Amino acid sequence: MAESKKIIPYKKRRDLNVGIIIFLVISLYIFVNVVRGYTKRQVRYYEIVEGSMSEDKTHTGLILRDESVQAAPSTGYINTYMRDGKRAYVGGRVYSLDATGDLKKLIEASAGKDDSISDANVGEIKKKLSNFTANYSDSNFEYVYSTKYLLDNAAGEYSNIVNIENIDAISNENGLNLDIVTSPGSGEISYAIDDIAEKKEEDLTKADFDSTKHPVNYIKNEQLVETDTKVYRIVNSEAWSIYFEFDKGEEELYAEKKALTVKFKSNGLELTGDYSVIDTKDGYRLGKLTFDKYMVQFIANRYADFDIESSSVSGLKIPVKSVIEKDFFTIPIEFISKGGDGVSDGFYKSVDKDGVSSTVFVPADIVKITDTNCYISAEGKDIVSGDKLIKPDSNETYEISNKEKLLGVYNINKGYTVFKTIDILSSNKEFYIIDKGTKYGLKVYDHILLNPESFKEGDFIYQ
């Protein structure tokens, strides 16, 4: 019988793969850092710089002038001899009325090469177009129509200069009976007509400031007009006034002002006018600016958009999103004292221990001080609500209780968050201008957090 043989398999020893271990360690390291990167608070900061800001107030004003409206003496097709803004003299021809409408055809038939527009006239039209392009705004589309009217008016006058010089001969040769209308006075004229032209300032109402309710009618060349139709205005003086409604608190802002500087949006003109406040018959209170020149630049306008320029405010410039609000204890300034070193600010606090009362000096970080109060953190542990402070060299006490909210930012110069209060001087949507002379406040080149909502007082920012 053959001897049986039992085969026992031998378990091979597995050697550790160093490459796999290193790979796993590196993978774990990367994973841990990625997780930490997502969970760690992101620190974004801003370096404080000096800056300035102007608080301009935008208004739509209503213009009144010393002007009179002239009506057509008869019915006919109008042929203007002067464009808007030109000065008419007593007895000077302003326009004519053609009862038949034949004058236009006769002028066109007699037109020749010498009737072309001069280079100077073309230059003036280009200047008007350039000014329109520079100052156009979607919010003031009416500006398009007024500019088109002025350009049409100017082009019509430029192209008809030679014909106007011969108009009498043309009408006589063809037996036309023209009604020549002359100016009754001396002044600048405009064919832009509305229902406010001869209104007095004391008769102004709130409804007058709604431009949609007072449309402008532009009298155009060769237009048929009926008898007594209002055709043009004659402005008798260079002096003019613009009236505006006050925003909330604005009247008080200008209470001490005798003059204001404004910048008109339609043409970029910057003027300083005499400032006053008027009351209408119905008790409506309006701001008034009076000017003694540049009336002709606005002669075709009843309304004008402008900014009232205030003095520039200077200080430290900080982002709006860096500012937070916190609660602080208020303490009368008479209770502030100095520590044993004669330098540290703090307070003497009454302490009861084992039935024995004593007084200890507690240093405190004062974040703001006024003529009456100082402010300390309401989150501190050394001074809390209910503690009694003792006035130096006196038995008078003050119990901690009152709180106020203050605006401020987190300063991170020391590597941890320190709350600093701010006094805002001016602002817009993105930045504040704050006082740079505030005690315990910020300085140029300080670093402040841009995302303060995820931090609290005393947080280390780089751990």
Features:
single chain, 463 residues, alpha+beta, 3 domains, 6-stranded antiparallel β-barrel, 5-stranded antiparallel beta sheet, elongated, membrane, transmembrane, HlyD family secretion protein
Tell me about this structure.
The protein has 463 residues and is an alpha+beta fold. The chain folds into three domains: 55-96 and 180-311, no CATH class; 101-175, no CATH class; 317-460, no CATH class. 17% of the residues lie in helices and 37% in strands. The chain contains seven helices and 30 strands. The chain has helices spanning 18-39, 103-110, 119-135, 142-159, 161-165, 167-173, 250-253; strands at residues 45-47, 49-53, 57-71, 76-80, 87-88, 93-98, 178-182, 187-190, 192-193, 217-218, 224-225, 230-244, 259-264, 270-279, 285-291, 303-309, 313-319, 324-332, 337-338, 345-353, 356-363, 366-369, 373-377, 388-390, 397-399, 403-411, 418-421, 424-427, 431-434, 447-449. It is elongated and about 130 Å long. The model has no long low-confidence stretch (mean pLDDT 83).
Question: Which term fits the overall shape?
Answer: elongated
> How does the helix and strand content classify structurally?
alpha+beta
The pLDDT mean sits at 83
Q: Major sheet: order of its strands?
A: 3-12-15-14-13-16
Rg result = 40 Å
Distance between the termini: 81 Å
Characterize the main sheet. Answer: 6 strands, antiparallel, barrel
Task: List the uncertain runs.
Answer: none
Helix share bin = 10-25%
> How many E-type strands?
30
Classify the beta-strand content into a percent band. Answer: 35-45%
Number of individual domains: 3
Number of helices: 7
